[in-house]
Amino acid sequence: MSLIKVKSRGTDNVTGRKNLIINGAMRVAQRGTSTTSVAASGYFATDRMKYYDSAQVVATVEQVSDAPSGSGFQYSHKVTATTADSSLGATELSCPLWYIVEKQDVDARLAYGTSSAKPITMSFWIKSNVTGTYTISAYRSATPARVQAQTYTISSANTWEFKTLTFLGDTAEAIDVDLHFYFNGLVGGDYDNTSTTSGWATYSTGNWAGGHTATWGDTTNDTWQMTGLQLEVGSEASDFEHRSFGEELALCERYCQFITGTNTYSRYCMGIAWESSTCDGGMVMRTVMRAQPTITLSGNFDCLGSPQVTGTTASAVHINTDNFSLRQTKSGSFTANNAYLMRGYNNATSFKMEAEL
Q: Is the dihedral of CA 51, 138, 230, 183 positive or negative?
């Protein structure tokens, strides 16, 4: 299918960053390009693209080098159902993609809760072996919770198709929480009763995905791919906003970033032993993170100094949004007040920092 080009409409899309989606071209994959045996909700492979499942689907989530010809994209986000849910429960739901937009990025701009509430338009390229009508549920877990589901149709199996759909503004309730978009794939019967395509409504299970007929995930090897995901203020879709890889990576690092050492003895920082069992050194994140992150260390570490201390236990302490302390401990092994070079020891090491929504 040829690339559809639509001119920008409205002042919101004329200048500045228009795409509210981070990594919509699916180029950044800090966690790796493939995660297998995914059986629970979470972030896997392509950055910022979350998986949701309350059903029994087990999936492989990947960043793949497959995109519509002539579209300007190189990669797509692919989800494959490796274990199907062939007996879906009425309250079960599986979504190959779940994207969350921070409240502070949209609350003032969309003017929800006022008579000036603005629509937002989503556009994307999609490919699946499962044809039919799909829904995307926009959701805010406020009091009361609000939902609006819009539909799109995949007409041809295993063929890239370009889609646009518009979510109407909410004049009744302001945005006081993050804005969620669930790309529904497999929908239990309790979720598919009442259509909300005409606007926002108070949430109930019955109006979550009215009109959804597609059954992605009820057959083994069902596939679902997306690229070129854009969300912009206004009622018209415009050309995709391509950002540089460096800028996109920095935006992703607000939520997740890695410090990695690929060499046998990767040097990280200088530390001071403040007692015979403990040495601390300062580490700085490349990007200020959204919130205090959870930090996971992998590999073995040591402290090179006088004396060298191997076999330490390494951890992250004093964690802030832009820095933390690397702490290495080993009973009775350090010389207090001595300086040590803190490094990986005879292996690859890494720090994973996550502050996801």
A: positive
